[in-house]
Design goal:
The complex is a heterodimer of chains A (527) and B (431).
Chain A: H1 3-28, E1 31-37, H2 48-55, E2 57-62, E3 83-85, H3 90-98, E4 108-110, E5 112-121, H4 122-131, H5 139-147, E6 153-155, H6 162-176, H7 184-187, H8 193-196, E7 199-201, H9 206-215, E8 222-226, H10 227-236, E9 243-246, E10 254-255, E11 258-261, H11 267-278, H12 280-290, E12 293-294, H13 319-329, E13 339-345, H14 353-368, H15 372-377, E14 384-390, E15 394-401, H16 405-417, H17 426-443, E16 449-455, H18 465-474, H19 477-480, E17 484-488, H20 494-504, E18 509-510, H21 516-523
Parallel strand pairs in A: 1-2, 1-3, 6-7, 6-8, 13-14, 13-16, 16-17, 17-18
Antiparallel strand pairs in A: 3-11, 4-11, 5-8, 5-9, 5-10, 5-12, 14-15
Helix pairs in contact in A: 14-16, 14-21, 17-18
Chain B: H1 32-44, E1 56-62, H2 66-69, H3 72-80, E2 83-89, H4 92-97, E3 105-107, H5 111-120, E4 127-128, E5 131-140, H6 141-149, E6 153-155, E7 166-170, H7 171-178, E8 187-188, E9 197-198, H8 230-243, H9 257-276, H10 285-290, H11 294-297, E10 301-304, H12 305-319, E11 326-332, E12 336-337, E13 341-343, H13 346-357, H14 359-367, E14 371-372, H15 382-390, H16 410-421
Parallel strand pairs in B: 1-2, 1-3, 7-11
Antiparallel strand pairs in B: 3-13, 4-13, 5-10, 5-11, 5-12, 5-14, 6-7, 8-9
Helix pairs in contact in B: 3-14, 8-9, 9-16
Classes of the chains: A alpha/beta (527), B alpha+beta (431).
C-alpha cells in the first residue's frame, strides 16, 4: 500500500536527477572548434581556458590567417577551420563581394576594436609636433620626416598581414587627401615612395615585426601597428624607452577583430563563444590583457585607452584598389629609390616669373611645401635626381643622389644658377635625357626611371620629333621602361608633347591649369 | 500577386499554450524540494520548462529587427507560449536574395525586401507588420551644430529649453554637401574662414571652428551594404526621390519603357557617388554608432529611429539622464520603414499569430522604441510619445513639412540598388 507511491517518488527523483545530470553533461560536453586566427591574437590565448570552463567550447587556434583569409571559405566541401578570428575581415569581404555570388559571406561579430596608429620615440615626436600644423601630428608629417631621413619606421608587410594592409590603406588615404575612401584614380600613382624610403623593419605579421623591433631598437624610431600592440609593447618593459602613441590627425583605420563562422554547422557553439566574449566581465579582461577597446559599452575604459582615437578613415570598396596599392608598395624593405631625369627648358622666355615658378616648384619638392600632398610628394632620401638644362643645346647636366639637405641645395643651385639660351631644342634635349635614363636602367635594372620634360615653347632647332623617335626606337628595351611626363608651360606645343607622352607611356600635365608646383606634384609617383 | 501583403483577417483563436494537468499523488510531494532544486538549476542553465512543456525553437532570419527578438523580456513572453526564436542575422535584402531553406520565419526590416520574399513564395503565407519606424541619421552634437551653421539642419525645440536631441534635415540641401564639390571645384572656402579647404569636408563647412576639433573627412553618411540591407536601400530610394524633384522615380514616361528605364539609370548614376564616396560599407551601423568609438567611426550613420530611442531609454535607466551627445537628424522628406514578420512554416504561423495578437508583446515593442500599430487608433505614435515623456526623454516632433518619400516600384528600386552597388545575382531556391 505504501510501497508503490514510494517507488514512484523514488523514480521521479531519479528521473529528475537524470534530467539534471544529462542537462549538465550536455552543457559540459566538450566541443572543439578549429580557429584560423591572425598572429596578433595570440595574446588572447590565456583567456581561452576560461572560455572552455565556462562554455565547454575549446578553441584550437592556428595563428596563420593571411591578409584576406586566402582559401576561405572553402568554395566546396568542408573547411579545415570552423571559425576565423582576424584583426579585420575587410579584404576578405571584398573578395567575397568580387566572387559574384559564388562565395557566401559568413556570420561575423566584432569583438574588440583598435586603431592602426604610429608609436614614435618621444624626442622625435616632440620635434614633429613642433612642426605640425595645429601641433597635431599627421601621416603627412610622418611621411615628410621619413623622406627627409629623420624617421625610420617598422610596419608589417601589407602583402601578408592584415595589420600591415590596414596601415598602408590609412597612409595612402591620407596621401590622397580627398577626405574620402581611395578610388582607382587615387592609387594610379604611387604617392608613398617618400614614406616608404623610411621603412627599415618589417615582418609577416605585426607580432613578428614587434619582436624584431625589440631586438633591433636602434634601427627604427617609429612603429606602425595597432594601438593595442604598442601599448602592450610599452607595458612589456622590453623597450629602452617607451614609444609615444600618436593618433594621426588625418585619420586612422580601425580594426574590429571579428569572429567569423566559417562552418555554419557550428552555429550553436559559435553563439556560445560570441556571447561569452561580449559579456562585460570578459570584455574587461580582454581590455586589460590586450589593450584593445571593448565593444561592450558597459565596460569603463582603462586609463591608457581614454585618449581619443581621432577620425576613422574609410576603407576602399573594391579589392582591386587595395591590391594595386599593395603591389605598388612592393617589398617593404628592399625598395630602391627612383631616378627622375628632369629635362628643363632654359630658353630666354623662361626668364623672370617663369624661372621663379620653377625654382619654387623645386623648393616645394625639396621640403618647403607644407601641404599634406606636398609632404607626401617631396624628394626623398635615396632618390636619384638628374637635371638637364637646355636651350638650343644641352647647357648643363648633373645627377645627385639625395643623401642630405646639402644635395637638395646643390639641386637648387643648378636649377636657378645657370644662364639662358635663345633657341629651344626640345627633342634634342629629350634625346639626351633618354641616353642618361637608359644608361641608368642598364646599370641598375631594378631602379624605376622616368623623365619629366618641362618646356614653355615650341621646338625651333636641333632634332625633329621624327628624328627623336627614330633614335628612341634604336635605344631598345631599356628606353621602353622609361616614360616621359611632359609639363606644358607657357606657349609650349601641347599636341607635340601629348604625342611624346603617348609614345613613351607617360602622360602630359598642363601647368597652365594650376601651377608648375602642382603640375610637378601631380606626376610624382606616376612612373 | 501575393495575398500576404494584406492584413490577415481570421477568427480569433485560443492561445496555443498547453496547460498539462497532472494528478499528483500525495507522497510525491515529499520529493518536491528535490524537484524544485532540479527546476532551479534548470532555470539557471536556461533549460527552464523544458521537461514540462514542449518548447518549439523557430529558425529565424532577420536584420536589425532582431533587436526585438533578442530582448530578454520578449524572449520571456515568447517562452510562456512555448516558443523560442533562434536568430540568424543577415541584412534584409540578403534575406530576400538568399536561400530560405530551413527557416520558419523571416523578418525583413522593410517592405521592399518583404515583397521580394513574398513574391518567391508559392503558397499564401501568414505575415504581420507589427510596427513602423522612420529612417534617421544618427550623429553627434558638434556635427549637427555644424550642419545647422551650414544651413541644412534646424534644431527642434527641446521642451525645457535645454539641448535638443533632434534636428530636421533639409535633404535637398544636405545632398548638396554629399557630392564633394562646391560648384565645380573640389576645394573652396565654404565657411569663410579665409583658408581653402576640401569642398564639403567637415572642416570645410566649419567643424574646426568649434574649438580644437578637426575632421578633414568629407561629409558622408555611413551605411551598411546597399546589396544587403534594407536601411541602405531605403536611403537610396530617399536620395532618388529627392534627386527626382520629390517625385517617385520610375513614374515618368510610363508609356515608353525604354525612356523610363533610361531615366532611372540616369538617376541612379546621379546618386551613386553619394553612397560610394564612403568606400566600403560597414555592417551594424547602430552598434558602431552607439559604441564608445561611435564619433570616431563615423560622424553620421544611417540607422532606424527605434535603435536610437531604445538607446536613450536604456541610457536614462542607467544614468538617470538623456545621452545629449548623440542626436538625430530627421530627413525631410522622410522615409518610414515597415518591417514584416513572414512565416514560412506552420510553426512560423504560431509566432506570427502571437505577435499579431499579444498585447504584452506590443507593449514591450513600445518600450523598445517602435511605433506600434494598435487597432482602433489613428496614429502609431501616441503611445510611444507618452512612454518617452514619462521616461524623461524628449519627444521627437514630426516635420511640419510632411513630404513623404514614396518607395519606387520594386523593379525600379532593384535597378537602382543593383546599379549603385553592383550586387551579385540573387540565389534561386529550388522548391
Amino acid at each position: 500500500m505504501k510501497r508503490p507511491p514510494a517507488v514512484l517518488a523514488a523514480a521521479l527523483v531519479l528521473t529528475l536527477l537524470g534530467t539534471l545530470v544529462s542537462a549538465c553533461t550536455r552543457d559540459a560536453e566538450h566541443i572543439t572548434l578549429r580557429v584560423l586566427a591572425s598572429p596578433e591574437l595570440a595574446d588572447v590565448e590565456p583567456l581561452l581556458d576560461e572560455l572552455e570552463e565556462d562554455t565547454g567550447v575549446k578553441l584550437e587556434m592556428a595563428y596563420e590567417a593571411t591578409a584576406d583569409l586566402a582559401g576561405q571559405p572553402a568554395a566546396s566541401g568542408r573547411s579545415a577551420y570552423d571559425l576565423a578570428w582576424v584583426a579585420s575581415d575587410r579584404s576578405f569581404l571584398l573578395r567575397v563581394q568580387d566572387s559574384g555570388g559564388r562565395l557566401t559571406r559568413p556570420e561575423s561579430t566584432a569583438v574588440m576594436r583598435s586603431p592602426v596608429v604610429v608609436g614614435i620615440e618621444r624626442d622625435l615626436a616632440d620635434l614633429l609636433r613642433a612642426g605640425a600644423s595645429g601641433g597635431r601630428i599627421s601621416w603627412a608629417d610622418v611621411a615628410d620626416a621619413a623622406a627627409e631621413g629623420r624617421l625610420r619606421f617598422g610596419m608589417a608587410d601589407p602583402r601578408r598581414s592584415d595589420t600591415g594592409r590596414a596601415a598602408l590603406v590609412g597612409v595612402a588615404t591620407a596621401a590622397a587627401g580627398t577626405g574620402s575612401a581611395l578610388r582607382e584614380q587615387d592609387v594610379s600613382c604611387d604617392r608613398l615612395r617618400g614614406f616608404r624610403s623610411g621603412q627599415t623593419l618589417t615582418g609577416a605579421s605585426s607580432r613578428e615585426l614587434i619582436s624584431t623591433y625589440v631586438e633591433h631598437q636602434g634601427d627604427a624610431e617609429a612603429l606602425i601597428a595597432h594601438e593595442a600592440e604598442l601599448l602592450a609593447l610599452n607595458a612589456s618593459g622590453k623597450l629602452r624607452e617607451p614609444l609615444e602613441i600618436v593618433h594621426p590627425d588625418d585619420g586612422m583605420v580601425l580594426s574590429d577583430f571579428p569572429l567569423l563562422l566559417l562552418d555554419p554547422g557550428r552555429r550553436e557553439a559559435y553563439g556560445k563563444v560570441v556571447d561569452w566574449l561580449l559579456g562585460a566581465d570578459v570584455q574587461k579582461k580582454l581590455m586589460e590583457r590586450t589593450f584593445r577597446r571593448p565593444v561592450n559599452q558597459d565596460v569603463e575604459l582603462s586609463a591608457p585607452l581614454r585618449a581619443s582615437v581621432g577620425n576613422a578613415l574609410s576603407f576602399p570598396d573594391r579589392l582591386s584598389i587595395v591590391e594595386q596599392l599593395v603591389d605598388d608598395y612592393g617589398d617593404p624593405v628592399h625598395a630602391i629609390g627612383d631616378q627622375v631625369v628632369f629635362v628643363l627648358d632654359f630658353s630666354t622666355s623662361m626668364r623672370g616669373e617663369r624661372i621663379a615658378d620653377l625654382r619654387a616648384a623645386f623648393a616645394g619638392l625639396s621640403g618647403a611645401d607644407q601641404s599634406a600632398t606636398g609632404k607626401f610628394a617631396r624628394f626623398y632620401r635615396g632618390e636619384r635626381l638628374t637635371v638637364v638644362r637646355f636651350g638650343g643645346r644641352v647647357l648643363e647636366e648633373r645627377t645627385v643622389t639625395v643623401r642630405s639637405d646639402a644635395d637638395l641645395r646643390t639641386l637648387d643651385r643648378i636649377v636657378t644658377g645657370g644662364g639662358f639660351d635663345d633657341a629651344t631644342a626640345v627633342w634634342s634635349a629629350l634625346d639626351r635625357g633618354y641616353r642618361i635614363a637608359t644608361d641608368a636602367v642598364r646599370a641598375a635594372p631594378e631602379r624605376p626611371v622616368a623623365i619629366v620634360l618641362m618646356t614653355d615653347g615650341e621646338n625651333n632647332t636641333g632634332l625633329s620629333y621624327e628624328e627623336f623617335l627614330r633614335r628612341h626606337e634604336r635605344l631598345g628595351s631599356a628606353a621602353d621602361a622609361v616614360p616621359t611626363f611632359p609639363v606644358q608651360f607657357g606657349e609650349a606645343d601641347a599636341a607635340a608633347l601629348k604625342r611624346a607622352a603617348a609614345a613613351t607611356g607617360g602622360r602630359m600635365v598642363d601647368a597652365g591649369l594650376s601651377s608648375l608646383s602642382d603640375a610637378f606634384k601631380e606626376i610624382r609617383g606616376c612612373h | 500577386m501575393s495575398v500576404a501583403g494584406r492584413p490577415t483577417i481570421e477568427e480569433p483563436r485560443l492561445t496555443t499554450r498547453q496547460v498539462r494537468r497532472r494528478r499528483v499523488p500525495r507522497h510525491v510531494v515529499v520529493a518536491l524540494p528535490l524537484a524544485l532544486a532540479g527546476l532551479i538549476s534548470l532555470m539557471v542553465s536556461g533549460n527552464a520548462f523544458r521537461p514540462f512543456e514542449r518548447i518549439t525553437t523557430l529558425e529565424a532570419r532577420m536584420a536589425s529587427k532582431s533587436d526585438f527578438f533578442r530582448d530578454p523580456e520578449v524572449q520571456r513572453l515568447l517562452l510562456e507560449h512555448g516558443l523560442r526564436v533562434d536568430i540568424h542575422r543577415l541584412g534584409s535584402r540578403g534575406i530576400a536574395t538568399q536561400s530560405l531553406k530551413g527557416m520558419d520565419v523571416v523578418f525583413p526590416s522593410g517592405q521592399p525586401a518583404a515583397k521580394l520574399v513574398l513574391d518567391r513564395q508559392e503558397r499564401s503565407v501568414r505575415s504581420v507588420r507589427p510596427f513602423v519606424t522612420p529612417l534617421v541619421l544618427g550623429t553627434f552634437r558638434d556635427y549637427a551644430d555644424t550642419l545647422v551653421k551650414a544651413g541644412v539642419a534646424t534644431p527642434q525645440q527641446a521642451p525645457d529649453g535645454g539641448p535638443t536631441l533632434y534636428y530636421n534635415l533639409d535633404m535637398r540641401a544636405f545632398m548638396g554637401l554629399l557630392d564633394g564639390r562646391a560648384g565645380e571645384k573640389t576645394t573652396a572656402d565654404q565657411d569663410g574662414d579665409g583658408t581653402l579647404e576640401g569642398a564639403d569636408t567637415w572642416n570645410g563647412i566649419g567643424f574646426d571652428q568649434a574649438g580644437g576639433r578637426s575632421n578633414s573627412g568629407r561629409v558622408l553618411v555611413r551605411t551598411s551594404s546597399v546589396c544587403e540591407s534594407n536601411s541602405a536601400g531605403t536611403y537610396l530610394s530617399l536620395l532618388a526621390f529627392v534627386a527626382n524633384r520629390n517625385s517617385t522615380p520610375g513614374t515618368q514616361n510610363v508609356n515608353d519603357p525604354q525612356l523610363a528605364r533610361d531615366a532611372v539609370t540616369d538617376l541612379a548614376a546621379k546618386i551613386r557617388p553619394l553612397i560610394n564616396l564612403q568606400g566600403m560599407w560597414a555592417d551594424e551601423q547602430a552598434d558602431s554608432y552607439l559604441s564608445d568609438l561611435g564619433e570616431s567611426i563615423a560622424p553620421i550613420s544611417l540607422i532606424y529611429e527605434h535603435q536610437y530611442l531604445a538607446h536613450q531609454i536604456a541610457y536614462q535607466d542607467t544614468h538617470g539622464r538623456q545621452d545629449i551627445e548623440r542626436v538625430l537628424l530627421y530627413p525631410t522628406p522622410y522615409a518610414l520603414t515597415e518591417p514584416q514578420l513572414i512565416s514560412l512554416t506552420d510553426e512560423g504561423d504560431r509566432l506570427v499569430r502571437l505577435v499579431e495578437q499579444d498585447e504584452e508583446l506590443r507593449d514591450r515593442a513600445i518600450e523598445l522604441g517602435f511605433r506600434v500599430r494598435f487597432n482602433g487608433e489613428d496614429g502609431t505614435s501616441e503611445r510611444l510619445n507618452t512612454y518617452l515623456r514619462d521616461h524623461g526623454i524628449q519627444v521627437p516632433v514630426p516635420n511640419r513639412d510632411e513630404t513623404k518619400s514614396y518607395e519606387p516600384d520594386l523593379n525600379v528600386l532593384e535597378r537602382i540598388i543593383n546599379y549603385v552597388g553592383s550586387c551579385p545575382p540573387p540565389a534561386q531556391d529550388t522548391p
